[in-house]
Amino acid sequence: MSSDLAGRHNATPVLAIEGLHAGYGRVEVLRGIDLVVGAGEVVTLIGANGAGKSTLLKAIVGLVHPSGGTVRLRGEDITRIRPEQAVRRGVALVPEGRLLFGPMTVRENLDLGAQSRRLSAEALRADVERVFELFPVLSERAAQSAETLSGGEQQMLAVGRALMADPALLLLDEPSLGLAPKVIAEIFSALDTLRASGLTILLVEQDAKLALRHADRGYVMRTGAVALSGSAADLLADDDVRLIYLGAWHGGGEG
Amino acid sequence: MGTTELLQFALAGLKNGSIYALVALGFTLVYAATGVINFAQGEFYMLGGMLSVWAYADLGLPLPLAALVGVAATALVGIVFELTAIRQRKDGDPLALIIITVGGSMLLSSLARHLFGPNERALPLFSGGGNVSVAGAVLEVQTIWIVGITAVSVAGLWYLYNRTALGRAMRACAVNRDAARIVGIDTRLMVTVSFVLAATLGALAGLAVTPLTQTAFDVGPSVGIKGFAAAILGGLGNPIAAVVGGLVLGMLESLSIAFISSTYKDAIALIVLLGVLFVRPQGLLGRSGREKV
Ligand SMILES: Nc1ncnc2c1ncn2[C@@H]1O[C@H](COP(=O)(O)OP(=O)(O)O)[C@@H](O)[C@H]1O
Ligand SMILES: [Mg+2]
């Protein structure tokens, strides 16, 4: 397994991370990450709690400052970019914990998602409608404050808000966390729709099986480093992955 | 005590409460953007008066123009203070920032003393002397100016906050800074804007009150404490609450003079401050804790 699959379109990858180091204060969390996401790919990043998956996403958008290595977006160096600039360049993050604007309405949250673009009121409304098509329940909740939504609806809003930035690369941090299976299915079916439309996605998940089923390729992270990478099919079939990340979490020893 | 006397005290409470409301709004706006109490807020009040006096008496400008210059110059001080002191602390560590604002407060009052001298200075009443009688109570015309300036400022701020893209970005920033940043809001710019607004509101209060009370380089801290108490009383971080807190504090002070003694007037703010912190830390209109989704 190698990451040469990444360049499958023979074009500059949307995201190319090389030797990335980052952490909090003096604590180093990421210890030399290499990761590539090609145009139109859905790549998933799996690994146990505390492996550094969220830190990696934060480092990509600049919420955490990399101390070494490079992050390239379509070939351009964006290492140590400020988050408000990252979204202007086309990187939208659905963060850990969603970070919605709780007291503000669903519509305001979506409008704020387009903060990085200069849209006419009409264009804004059209984009909001597109999000409503993807997540119809949000349209019923448009005037409600975000904090009154159910967990699933909040996650949908977080995804919708990120889409409002019209991203070239969508980063998702554990969209399934704490949600009922039916809601998870709904969200992942929306992700499949986005994937079919050609959006490039980097998906962080703890539920490895779920993530690999919706991805082209995957990386397995362990204590701040990439332990394994390959096509989703290969990873699903890999003995170590099955044992550690699939079996152990699904009652063990399936098939 | 008769109703006329009571009304008289209420009018005084309204006047002082309006001033506290403006100063409290300054605390609230900066707190919303930074999570920090700006202890230099009282100095913006001082500068609003002092710089207007300077423009009027020293530069010889007509009063309306001098007032404009005084407020605009204070707003500029707010920008410079934010850019040179607050923004330089890149990690935004609240304790460090609070200490910076305390230092800024001392620096600004020393500078004012150095530039404008130690004496009290005055402005003429905005529309000459004169009183209006309200159901037997005496209302100074300058009080109408004070309350009017407060009302217009509050309305303007409400519009900005609730009806403009800038205001929406400021509210988003107050809810969660990281969330604001990932949607593309320049939170540093929002901090600067909050300082400009806080300085402008403080300056308007200082300007409006100077014809009645005179002003001096050292008036900042005492008004700062009252504005702070008002902001805490209402519930820090919410503009409406700051206005309510200011008006309630003004009224409480007046009532204390009416029913207890004027000796304790200045202690009321501290009693209110401690009382709120012990009994209802989220303030009158605040939500409990800093809830986040
Ligand atoms: N804000 C933070 N400050 C300090 N340490 C943190 C912070 N966030 C995460 N960490 C630490 O970094 C490591 C990786 O965390 P994280 O990136 O959240 O992992 P994951 O998303 O894979 O569960 C953990 O050891 C965690 O304790
Ligand atoms: Mg995480």
Descriptive account of the structure:
- The complex is a heterodimer of chains A (255) and B (293).
- Helix content of chain A is 36%, strand content 25%.
- By secondary structure, chain A is α/β, with parallel strands linked by helices.
- In chain A, the strands form 2 sheets. Chain A has a 6-stranded mixed beta sheet with strand order 6-7-8-3-9-10, sandwiched between helices. Chain A has a 4-stranded antiparallel beta sheet with strand order 2-1-4-5, covered by helices on one side.
- Chain B contains 11 helices and 2 strands.
- The chains are: A alpha/beta (255), B mainly alpha (293).
- Residues 24, 27, 29, 47, 49-55 of chain A line the site of adenosine-5'-diphosphate.
- Residues 53-54, 96, 173-174 of chain A line the site of magnesium ion.
Task: Provide the descriptors you would attach to this structure in a database record.
heterodimer; A: 2 domains; six-stranded mixed sheet; four-stranded antiparallel sheet; 25% strand; globular; disordered C terminus; B: 293 residues; mainly alpha; ABC transporter involved in vitamin B12 uptake, BtuC; binds adenosine-5'-diphosphate
Number of helices of chain B: 11
Global morphology of chain A: globular
Distance between the termini of chain A: 23 Å
CATH topology group of the largest domain in chain A = Rossmann fold
